[in-house]
Design a protein that fits this description.
With 228 residues, this protein is mainly alpha-helical. It is built from 8 helices and 2 strands, in the order H-H-H-E-H-H-E-H-H-H. The protein has a two-stranded antiparallel ribbon with strand order 1-2. The longest helix is centred in the middle third of the chain and has 30 residues.
């Protein structure tokens, strides 16, 4: 696997005595040689061909003739491959990265082997579900409404004569009789003529109130005065 990048310490690069002696075009040519050597099949190495090296550095023939000694000093011949030139610092960086990748790969393989030897057993237990409401809800017991019959015409209680409550009892009977007579008359009137339905939004008419003459006639008929 080819490494996509390498570490470039700008302080070390600029403080190098060789870089400080280079012209601007020579610094550019040196960087181009470094970058192309890193992208080669063997990072840090270039073919030992001056014509090809000159074109890689993008220098003219005269520029290469003037700068070749300084540039080739940064790429000496490889001891194990005379047909190649290499940059020692860049080749060391490539070796360092290769060792790091190998160590990481071995560590990953050891971890995978350990997991395979001691697999973690996870029991598939169903998660209990707590029911917030009972499964069967009891039906609501209907409440029976008990209605108490109310007598429409309660029987009045007769008071003893010559008592203090006789007058009040008579007044009560009189008002009861008057109300009964008025209700009877209103019922007869309703039977003969049906009143028009009240308009929406208006209240019904009040009950018919007997006149004073009717009240006096009824009282005289119910309680005649005795002559002394």
């Amino acid at each position: 696997m080819k490494a996509p990048a390498f570490l470039l310490y700008t302080g070390d690069f600029l403080s190098s005595p060789d870089v400080q002696l280079m012209e601007a075009h020579e610094v550019g040519a040196y960087c181009l040689l470094l970058f192309n050597s890193w992208q080669s099949d063997r990072p840090g190495y270039l073919p030992n061909d001056e014509g090809r090296l000159r074109r890689t550095a993008r220098l003219t023939t005269q520029q290469w003739a003037d700068s070749r000694t300084l540039l080739l000093a940064k790429f000496p011949e490889a001891p194990d491959a005379p047909a190649m030139r290499y940059n020692p610092r860049l080749a060391a960086e490539a070796t360092k990265q290769q060792l790091y990748r190998e160590l990481k790969a071995k560590a990953g393989q050891a971890s995978a082997a350990k997991r395979a030897a001691n697999p973690t057993r996870v029991e598939n237990k169903p998660t209990p579900v707590q029911h917030l409401l009972p499964e069967t809800t009891p039906a609501a017991t209907p409440q029976s409404s008990v209605s108490t019959p109310v007598a429409e015409n309660p029987t009045p209680v007769a008071a003893h004569p010559n008592t203090c409550s006789e007058n009040s009892q008579q007044e009560g009977n009189l008002s009861l009789s008057i109300s009964r007579d008025s209700s009877l008359r209103s019922e007869r009137g309703a039977a003969t003529a049906t009143p028009p339905a009240p308009k929406p939004g208006k209240s019904a008419k009040k009950a018919v109130v007997p006149t004073l003459a009717e009240v006096q006639a009824f009282a005289a008929a119910q309680y005649p005065t005795s002559a002394d």
